[in-house]
Amino acid sequence: MTTGTSGPAAAVRSRGLTKRFRHQVAVNSIDLEVPTGSVYGFLGPNGSGKTTTIRMLLGLIRPTSGEHELLGQPMPRRAGAVLGRVGSLVEGPAFHPYLSGRANLVRLDAADRQSDPGTASRRIDAALDRVGLLAAARKRYRAYSLGMRQRLAIAAALLEPRELLVLDEPTNGLDPQGTREVRSLVASLAADGATVLISSHLLSEVEQICTHLGVMHVGNLVAQGSVAEVRSGSEPRVRVDSDREEDAARVLRMLGIADVKVSPGQIQGLLGQIAVEKIVPALVHEGVPVLGFAVAGQSLEDRFVQLTGEGFDVSG
Ligand SMILES: Nc1ncnc2c1ncn2[C@@H]1O[C@H](COP(=O)(O)OP(=O)(O)OP(=O)(O)O)[C@@H](O)[C@H]1O
Fold first, then answer.
1. Looking at ligand 1, which residue's alpha carbon is closest to its atom 12?
2. Is 233 helix (H, G, I), strand (E, B) or coil?
3. Rounded distance, CA 304 to CA 298, Å?
4. Which residues have any ligand 1 atom within 6 Å of their CB?
5. Strand, helix or coil at 312?
6. Looking at the record's lineage, which domain of life comes first (predicted)?
7. pLDDT band (50, 70, 90) for residue 244
8. At residue 289, does pLDDT exceed 90?
9. CA distances for 60 relative to 53, 107, 198, 216, 260, angstroms
10. Ligand 1 center–CA 216 separation, angstroms
11. Using 50, 70 and 90 to split pLDDT, how confident is the model at 92?
12. What 3-state DSSP class applies to 117?
């Protein structure tokens, strides 16, 4: 792959990766760059193309066009050499409800033709230990909490040592406790040196653990970089506290402030090129009582709403 422009090897890199289903472009020419050692939050609303991208990355479906590499190896040409170093969780393995967590891993490991039966027991215990399920290893799967089930699915991805983990919506459907369990597990896997690509439609679920973000919106990668870089792409906003919201909004619009939004007691808008010092005098001149005033960068959440046109917490 002729992509040697981006410095040290990325754990995942794609160029023009595209997937078309009939007439629908599910993933539109995306250039992913997941730095080695990062926790890369792959974010976007439902249906924005995250799972399709991940399936292409792992060689589960064939891209319509574009190319990519994992751990510096071109895919799918070098799949045999690289996939053993990549653990993944996509749609979750099928676990048997009446078998214990450990027995389920024994079955999965035995079904993997690449794995060494001689070391199975040790590897399975190590994976269970890694996800904090050793004490519950002999409990039936059906007695596991949602968080334990998801941790077992991650254990299944850890039956071999992995340099890269690709986890598709591992917190989806979990309660807050389960989400915390998975989040702290992912953080500790990253602390051990694995690169982690974790997808989510909820920023709030992964924000605390990510070093980097990629944001999908209708098949396009609309932002990518370190968390600070993605946040700094946002424009400062003006916030006015006033009980005369509509009058205040009118003055802000008159000054040329864009994207003015009114909520009870508060009016916000994009500062743009407007001189900050002109705003309060203009409001006062129009008889609008100003009870508070601030200019601040957007929160990451606001930034995502701006990028994707929707809140990230709506469909949780
Ligand atoms: N096998 C398929 N055939 C046709 N269309 C598909 C197929 N798989 C996905 N799509 C479409 O591609 C688009 C992207 O879907 P994808 O599952 O990748 O999104 P996503 O971001 O992972 O969302 P979700 O979180 O809901 O899985 C959607 O419009 C979906 O309907």
1. 26
2. coil
3. 10
4. 21, 24, 26, 44, 46-52, 169, 201
5. coil
6. Bacteria
7. very high
8. yes
9. 10, 22, 17, 20, 45
10. 12
11. confident
12. helix
What CA–CA distance (Å, rounded) separates 32 from 83? 18
Q: Compute CA distances 88 → 10, 141, 194, 198, whole Å.
A: 17, 20, 12, 10
Q: Is 116 helix (H, G, I), strand (E, B) or coil?
A: coil
CATH number of 237-297: 3.30.70.2470
Question: Closest residue (by CA) to atom 26 of ligand 1?
Answer: 46
Distance (Å, rounded) from C-alpha 50 to C-alpha 45? 9
Interstrand relation of 39-43 and 212-217 (parallel, antiparallel or unpaired): parallel
Tokens of residue 179, six digits: 């989400």
- Superfamily of domain 10-232 in CATH is P-loop containing nucleotide triphosphate hydrolases (3.40.50.300)
Determine whether 108 is exposed, middle or buried from the number of CB atoms within 10 Å of its CB (0-12, 13-18, 19+). buried
- The structural domains of the chain, with segments of one domain joined by +, span 10-232, 237-297
Q: How are beta strands 237-241 and 73-75 bridged, if at all?
A: unpaired
**Residue among 28, 48, 201, 220 to mutate when testing ligand 1 (max atoms within 8 A of CB):** 48
Q: Say if residue 271's pLDDT is above 90.
A: no
Ligand 1: which residue has its CA nearest to atom 29? 47
Tell me the β-bridge partners of 198. Answer: 41, 167
Task: Please tell me whether residue 91 adopts helix, strand or coil conformation.
Answer: coil
pLDDT at 306: 77
Q: Where are the alpha helices (DSSP H) in the chain?
A: 50-57, 79-82, 101-111, 120-130, 146-157, 176-191, 203-206, 227-232, 245-255, 279-285, 300-308
Residue 105's Cβ-side half-sphere holds a number of Cα atoms within 13 Å equal to: 29
